[in-house]
Amino acid sequence: MNYLNKSKPKLAIVGAGKMGEAMISGFLKSGEYGPPDIQVFEILESRRKYINQTYNVKCVDDAKEAAFFADLTIIAVKPRHMKKALEQIAPAMKPGKIVVSIAAGVTLEFLRKHLPKDAPVIRVMPNITCQVREAMIAICPSVNTKKKELETVIGTLSLLGHVITLDEKYLNLATGLVGSGPAYIYLIIESLADAGVRLGLPKDVSIILAAQTTLGAAKMVVETGEHPAKLKDMVTTPAGTTVEGLLALEEGKLRAVIIAAVTKAAERAKQLEPA
Ligand SMILES: NC(=O)c1ccc[n+]([C@@H]2O[C@H](COP(=O)([O-])OP(=O)(O)OC[C@H]3O[C@@H](n4cnc5c(N)ncnc54)[C@H](OP(=O)(O)O)[C@@H]3O)[C@@H](O)[C@H]2O)c1
């Protein structure tokens, strides 16, 4: 991240909804960014007030103004508002400025159509865990993005989690897993916690037991690089407790249900591209 110290791009966040706020919060928590380095455009006055009071960043009611300020403009509006947001920032896209879109289903072709011809644009699929700087972030640059511009974006987004560059054909698929994934994990944590309550554990204890167990298990996969099946085998002893639980999960078709959920979400991402 050394180069960021030398050339940290000033940021504009266009659309301060749930994701915009999670990103603002994550950038500030990183310590690399302070309030003067970020400007926010948000359409709702009440939301501008809230963001300004909570994060002390400047909130403006003109997207062009924020994009003029920034080296890197991150667009975090709903896919259906994308065309309008791009048209608003387009006049500010002078050479050297970079655009990032986090909108589900919105292709690079669509983004480039509504921006000046040479503007470098990166399609990104993050998730809400940007807020705690543990996001999975899949990215795909437009063909005209220069190596240095891509490095700038990777370095900046790395402050929010782990960045992976993918071919664009994988971005909608990654949306089903990365963008929607936290919701599925929350449901699993809630279910584990419900199980604890059913067995007689206090609810608050049960939730933390379930959440920390999920966090630890995920960390084992990331840090050891081992296949999850191997890690599962490590904790499954013959005639032990875990194998009984695994049998119940397989009988309930947990694996098939999760595969179906991610598939549905990816299909939905494909339908979201604005006309
Ligand atoms: N939520 C997730 O977990 C997640 C994960 C990955 C990617 N994404 C993507 O992130 C984007 C934002 O999602 P979100 O969940 O944060 O939605 P959200 O909470 O509805 O936030 C969108 C924000 O943009 C504002 N807005 C609407 N039109 C605008 C315009 N023309 N210019 C500027 N701001 C405008 C909205 O204001 P109004 O309330 O007035 O509409 C709202 O504050 C979406 O494109 C989504 O596909 C979301």
Describe the overall structure.
The protein is an alpha/beta fold and 275 residues long. The protein has two domains: 2-168, NAD(P)-binding Rossmann-like Domain (Rossmann fold), CATH 3.40.50; 181-271, ProC C-terminal domain-like (ProC C-terminal domain-like fold, Orthogonal Bundle). The protein is 54% helix and 13% strand. The protein has helices at 2-7, 18-30, 45-55, 63-69, 82-89, 108-113, 147-157, 171-179, 181-199, 203-224, 228-234, 241-251, 254-271; strands at 11-14, 38-41, 58-60, 72-75, 98-101, 121-125, 135-141, 161-165. It has an eight-stranded mixed sheet, with helices on both faces. Helix 8 crosses helix 13 and helix 9 packs across helix 10. The radius of gyration is 21 Å and the shape is elongated. The two termini are 38 Å apart. Bound molecules: NADP nicotinamide-adenine-dinucleotide phosphate. NADP nicotinamide-adenine-dinucleotide phosphate binds next to helix 2 and helix 5.
What's the pLDDT, averaged over the residues?
A: 95
Number of strands: 8
The number of helical segments is 13
Number of domains: 2
**Could you describe the largest sheet, including whether it forms a barrel?**
8 strands, mixed
Question: What is the CATH top level name of the largest domain?
Answer: Alpha Beta
| Shape annotation | elongated
Unreliable stretches (pLDDT < 50, length at least 5) are none
Bound molecules: NADP nicotinamide-adenine-dinucleotide phosphate
In CATH, the architecture of the largest domain is 3-Layer(aba) Sandwich
Fourth-tier CATH superfamily name of the largest domain: NAD(P)-binding Rossmann-like Domain
Task: State the end-to-end distance.
Answer: 38 Å
Q: Kindly report the CATH topology of the largest domain.
A: Rossmann fold
Estimated helix fraction: 40-55%
List the secondary-structure elements in sequence, H or E: HEHEHEHEHEHEEHEHHHHHH
What is the C-alpha radius of gyration, as a whole number of Å? 21 Å
* Strand portion: 5-15%
Strand order in space, largest sheet: 3-2-1-4-5-6-7-8
Which structural class fits the helix and strand makeup? Answer: alpha/beta
